[in-house]
Amino acid sequence: MGNIVIRRVYDAEPINGAAFLVDGMWPRGVRKQDLKLDGWARDLAPSPELRRWFGHRPECFEEFSLRYRRELDRSPDAVRPLLDATQRGPVTLLYAARDTEHNNAVVLRDYIRARLATAARS
Fold it and tell me: Which InterPro entries match (predicted)?
């Protein structure tokens, strides 16, 4: 199982392996040519309605996580490229949120890890 890390898109640290932007909107102040991506997983971002409801309020993170996982369950084809990339090597999920503990990349990383663990047991 490949290593999955999450990182703010604004961090200047080098990325090891494949990199995917997992936000629905392009991050402010970042030029597309400056960001070395293997993909922009817009389809995996939380729906606009869910994103607005969450509003990056830490007290809503648990419910946000549940709702976001349900959205991900309804998009198995959108998750497949990230699952496949983890089989080839390390994967970095990039996000723009300021909160490093309560964001969609945290949920997506844990979701992918769970899917990989389930597949490994099968």
Answer: YeaO-like
